[in-house]
Amino acid sequence: MGKVIAIANQKGGVGKTTTAINLAASLAAAEVPTLLIDCDPQSNASSGLGFGKDPNRLSSYELLMGTAPASDVLQHTALEELQLIPASKNLIGANIELVMMERREYRLRDAIQVLKENFEFIVIDCPPALDLLTLNSLVAADSVLVPMQAEYFALEGVSELLDTVERIRESYNPELAVEGVVLTMFDDRTNLAQSVASELKSYFGERLCDTQIPRNVRLAEAPSHGKPALLYDPKSRGAESYIKLAKEVIQKHRNKAQHVAPEQMVQAHSESD
C-alpha cells in the first residue's frame, strides 16, 4: 500500500508547492512509483509540471465531487514513474460544495483508496489555509511534511498546524503522523538562520529533517519552465537537496516497513494458534 504524505503549512510563501513538486519528482527519479495530487486552487503544482490551465481536463475537483473515478483523472508527466492529479480553479468553490456532502472530510481518502496499490508514495499539495481541502488532504494522509523557513515568526504557524494535526488525529484520522519539518529557502551563511535552525532542532528533535533546502535561483526558475528542478538543472543545489530529502523519506518509510512486518507476522501467527 502506498504511503500518503500531505505537504502542508497554512502560511504562504514557505516553499510548500516547490517541496511537493520536487519531492515527488525526486522520489520518481529514484524509480519509486509516485503520484502527486494538486489540491490547491492556485494549481501551481500542476503548472510546475507543465500542465497549464485547461477547463476541459479532469482534476482533483471531480475526484472530490465524485463525478470521475481516480483512474480517469491521472495524467502522465515527463518522468516515467511520476503521475499527476492536477488541480483546477473549480476547487475554489469546493469548500462550499463539500459542506453539505456526506463524509465531507473523507472524500479524498475514499477516492484515492483504489490508487494506493499502484504507488509507493502519494504526495498531496495542500492549499495555504486550514480549510476543507486541507482537512480532506490530512484525513487522507498517513503523515504530514511541513516546509518552513528559518524565521522566528514561522514557528508560530507550525505550532498552530501541529495543533490541527492533533485535533484531526483525535476526530478523523488516528494514524496521522508528522513526517517531519523541513527547512526551506535556507541560507546557512547567516547567523539568524543558524540560530533558528538550532532552536528548531531542540524544539522538534528527530522530527526536523536532516536535509535543508537552500535558497536557490534554479529552484525558483524551474516552475516557469514547467519542470521540476532535477529536469531543469539537475546539478543545481536545489535539485540535489530535494534528491537528498527524497532519499531521507524513502529510507524512513522502508525502515518502518521492515520493523512493522515482523510484528505483523508474529501477530498473525499467534492469531492462527
Automatic annotation (TrEMBL):
InterPro entries: AAA_dom, DNA_Partitioning_ATPase, P-loop_NTPase. Residues 3-177 form the AAA domain. Gene3D superfamilies: P-loop containing nucleotide triphosphate hydrolases (3.40.50.300). It comes from the Bacteria. CDD domains: ParAB_family. Coiled coil: none annotated. This is Chromosome segregation ATPase. It comes from Koribacter versatilis (strain Ellin345). The lineage of its organism: Bacteria, Pseudomonadati, Acidobacteriota, Terriglobia, Terriglobales.
